[in-house]
Design the sequence.
């Protein structure tokens, strides 16, 4: 890469600090905890969809959560890669493997051992549960599919981002439009061709439920990767637009409109995607830094919270199944807050004991406000 290209890359890469993304990560993590708590607390219902419309509204309010987390990961990755034209794949792979794959293996093992031995012992069962199959560690234990998804997704987009370093600003704008079109085509192909496939028929062996869950969830959220990369390529244009008050107002109006659409229409995936994208774009505007440092600490520990909260959700599911309790929405929401605070606190303590990303990975969040680096 010649010097003129390097200079242009630095010049055209966004240098704005996205306070909104930093702050919203913690709220998005709570949205995931809230969903899993709700599902665990309604396990005694034959069909959770039979719950009141009020319950469904509460659940739909948090439907931006995982799309925002996915888009944040690939948006920040793209911005970072475009700022570092000389980064090597070996360093990139090592860092990502340490922060995503090793925690996946460690915590999948812990969850599987808990399921196989601890839970049967607590319930007083005569025999232990089955040991996990090898393919469980490919996709991760239940909710941990997300770590593998982010890892593999980053490896796939890496060569694309390396190629984009040499592109000028006008070229990046055109590529961003193509990425948005590719996302639209993907969602059509997913609905018509991918989603109807019986995945069990594709394997010469009987796959575990965890592997199937990983494939299903990954295929669903792949849609947001080109959206995030495309928005990152347009970051300079987006930053310029947000300097106008009218665009800020329109971005918030888009969130409100997409939310109303999502709440009033019968549930379809496209309204949830629109809602998630709208919230993400609104989070890109120059928010003032929140004076409460805990907001940013919780965002930095959002991966740890995500990993650990499922222990509590599974315990709740066991208790509800045994007692046949029916918890209302208010009780479940209160429990989800307790689960969020507890899992965040435990993640914080474990990180202090073993301060390594391969154990409890941290998201790079600027915890202190530095002079001259504030959002406009």
Sequence:
């Amino acid at each position: 890469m010649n010097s003129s290209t390097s200079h242009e890359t630095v010049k055209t890469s966004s240098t704005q600090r996205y306070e909104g993304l930093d702050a919203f990560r913690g709220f998005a993590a709570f949205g995931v905890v809230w969903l899993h708590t709700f599902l665990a607390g309604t396990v005694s219902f034959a069909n959770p969809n039979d719950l009141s419309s009020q319950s469904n509204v509460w659940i739909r309010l948090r439907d931006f959560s995982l799309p925002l987390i996915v888009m944040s990961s690939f948006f920040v990755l793209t911005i970072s890669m475009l700022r570092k034209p000389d980064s090597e794949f070996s360093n990139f792979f090592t860092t990502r493997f340490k922060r995503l794959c090793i925690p996946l293996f460690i915590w999948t093992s812990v969850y599987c051992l808990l399921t196989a031995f601890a839970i049967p012992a607590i319930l007083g069962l005569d025999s232990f549960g089955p040991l996990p199959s090898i393919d469980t560690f490919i996709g991760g234990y239940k909710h941990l599919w997300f770590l593998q998804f982010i890892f593999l997704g980053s490896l796939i987009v890496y060569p694309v981002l390396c190629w984009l370093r040499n592109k000028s600003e006008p070229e990046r704008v055109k590529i961003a439009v193509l990425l948005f079109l590719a996302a639209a085509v993907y969602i059509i192909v997913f609905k018509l061709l991918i989603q109807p496939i019986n995945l069990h028929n594709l394997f010469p062996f009987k796959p575990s439920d965890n592997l199937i869950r990983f494939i299903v969830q990954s295929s669903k959220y792949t849609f947001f990767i080109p959206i995030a990369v495309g928005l990152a390529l347009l970051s300079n244009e987006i930053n310029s637009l947000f300097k106008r008050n009218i665009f800020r107002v329109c971005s918030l109006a888009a969130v409100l409109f997409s939310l109303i659409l999502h709440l009033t229409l019968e549930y379809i995936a496209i309204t949830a995607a629109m809602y998630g994208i709208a919230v993400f774009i609104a989070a890109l505007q120059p928010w003032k830094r929140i004076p409460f440092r805990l907001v940013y600490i919780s965002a930095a520990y959002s991966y740890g919270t995500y990993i650990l909260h499922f222990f509590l959700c599974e315990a709740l599911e066991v208790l509800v199944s045994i007692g046949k309790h029916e918890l209302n929405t208010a009780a479940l929401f209160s429990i989800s807050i307790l689960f969020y605070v507890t899992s965040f606190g435990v993640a914080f303590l474990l990180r202090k004991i073993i301060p390594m990303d391969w154990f409890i990975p941290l998201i790079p969040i600027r915890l202190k406000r530095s002079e001259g680096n504030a959002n406009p």
User: Anything to note?
Assistant: Residues 1-13, 370-376 have pLDDT under 50 and may be disordered. Residues 63 and 375 are 28 Å apart (CA to CA).
